[in-house]
Amino acid sequence: MGAESVREDHPVVMGILNVTPDSFSDGGRYADVDAAIEHGIALQQGGADIVDVGGESTRPGAERVDAATEAGRVVPVIAGLAAAGVRMSIDTTRASVAAAALTAGATVINDVSGGLADPAMAGVAADAGCPWILMHWRGHSRRMNELAIYRNVVEDVRDELLQRVDEAVGGGVDPGRIVLDPGLGFAKNADHNWALTRHLDVLIDLGFPILFAASRKTYLGRLLAAPDATPRPVDEREAATLATSVLAAAAGVWGIRVHDVRATADALAVWRASGAPKIKTGRSNRSGSSGRAEE
Length: 295
Description:
TIM Barrel; disordered N terminus; about 40% helix; eight-stranded parallel beta sheet; globular; alpha/beta
């Protein structure tokens, strides 16, 4: 993301803007272009450093939409937000959609597939010279739950993310522009998510900025389930989300991706007032596509 976007006093806050009819938390709420632009501006005003715009749901079991539909959802919103001075990332696994979004005004690629879904994404990121968030991923939404099998989830996620880094750097991407995301909830069960949360230091020690994205996810709903085991509804998971965000900030992550930006900003303000340490902003010294980050 560049040193200019790494704050020393708190992590970058990324606000989620889904312009989809079927996202798990807010599907359909911002499908209208004007409503989406209004919400994106509100996210920035509430404390979002980056607004993450996505046009395809990645909830478990979701079916894919075609590239033209995805681009048609996000490009007008991105253009409108860019005109309003909002800094944005494009949440997509498609190189063509990323390229169109960058042209419209996005400045960051947030790729939940880590480059696996579309090999052309590395070329788009390299040519644009923009930051590229590589998330840990094993397959598309319709089958990702069956892929949640690990020898040791922390070590496996670390190693698989490093493979994605190697591929990206081999494709011409500047390693100083790479951000890693452990991919909570993507081909992971609740135990996997908690293990990764407890051991964020293993990923942070790789030397790349880490994005943490637990907002309103299913495993939080199950943690807070009613006595009859009914998961807590999506819109009642915010306190748990805030707790995970503060835990991640304390661990030293670079950024936190959330739905409720203002509440997150408030929680981080309390965390800072308590005498929180500066976040870790070190970069890996990887300069090629081969070898491993020092561990």
